Amino acid sequence: MIQFRLKTTIQIYHKCKDFCKETQIGSGDLIITSGHIYENYLNGLIGEATLVNLREYGSGEPNDKMVESILADIKDNSYRRVIAIGGGSILDVAKLFVLKHISPVQDLFERKLPIIKEKELIMVPTTCGTGSEVTNISILELLEKKTKMGLATDELFADYAVLIPELLETLPFQSFGTSSIDAFIHAIESYLSPKANEFTKMYSKKAIELILQGYQIIVQQGEEARVSIMEKFLLASTYAGIAFGNAGCAAVHALSYPLGAKFHIPHGESNYVVFLGVFERYMRIDPNGEIKELNEFLSDVLGVSNEKVYKKMEELFHSIIPKKSLSSYGVTSEQLEEFTDSVMINQGRLLANNYVELSKKDIFEIYQSVF
Question: Where are the alpha helices (DSSP H) in 163-266?
């Protein structure tokens, strides 16, 4: 029985220029990034590579229409490597461009197209949350279906994941907060997954520990304290990606997807909104299983009793990013039913990884508890 896989080679550079020089970026490369990253770190270093600025195709979370538009614009370009340099949106979009068959994108995500990898893939994260650089999953909003969906297949594993702490130095505090909370949720959800094992739990626990300890330092010393410990957050994100890439995420992500798709809330933030609601429901259903062991670990890291770990986490997270209710985003009570139906219909892949089984009634009541 396979317990653990890491198909991606991980490299670390302290400066982006060193990465560009050693990788010999140029003709035959497709670079997908943002204008900000290009101007600040890549200008003059990529030769004749084909450059795609994702933000020219739309703002917010990526969707299938954006991918179709990029595909149309580069159809006459020949490339052998795809190099993604950016946050989760850029990494998730770039993964698709290593495939032979991409369009129609909705058909790809519904597994109606053959999945054949024909390009090399290099992933360079510029946030500390996605973990996408070491996973085989691409997440897109499918506009016709009005929700996000994931395509999980080994063909989407990167050949190389490149960690460059320099690229996170200009990350705004809000983006830092939403991305690092996303990494935390990757780690804690994968820890409780029925697919978890001692290998994945090791990565989950280290990610949880680094993030919570980092947050405590920031709360004590102020926002700028993050700069000196950013490499630890970058490592934590990759550790969490390794964990959930093997064990999977679950209900927190499943419940966040309709919310993110409808209201275009950053992925980490939408996860944060429903996180405690899901875990409080887990505790109500079965407080004595794997979650008890998890709470003991959290208790040690946070320095509080087992009974106070979630209250302490909420206080700590709120210090990084103030938590909002669903209604504050404009969600109506009528939409809770719509979101619940969407989760039950579209997110079976994620719900299979739940700590305990959640019924339709459970999911609706979780939404109500954070409304």
Answer: 173-192, 198-221, 230-247, 251-263
Closest CA to 145 of 342, 352, 363, 349: 342
* Whether residues 161 and 310 fall in one domain: no
The boundaries of the domain holding residue 47 are 9-168
51 with 79: CB under 8 angstroms? no
* Residues 179 and 143 placed together within one structural domain of the fold: no
Residue 1 has pLDDT above 70, yes or no: no
List the structure tokens of 350: 């994620």
How many domains, the chain?
A: 2
What angle, rounded to 10 degrees, do the helices at 198-221 and 173-192 form? Answer: 150
* One-character DSSP codes across 326-364: GGGGT--HHHHHHHHHHHHHH-HHHHTT-SS---HHHHH
pLDDT digit string, tens, across residues 277-297: 999 999 999 999 999 999 999
Name residues whose C-beta falls within 8 Å of residue 26's C-beta, 6 or more positions apart in sequence.
46, 47, 48, 49
Entry pTM: 0.90
Domain-terminating residue out of 148, 168, 188:
168
Task: Mark which of 127, 152, 168 sits at the end of a domain.
Answer: 168
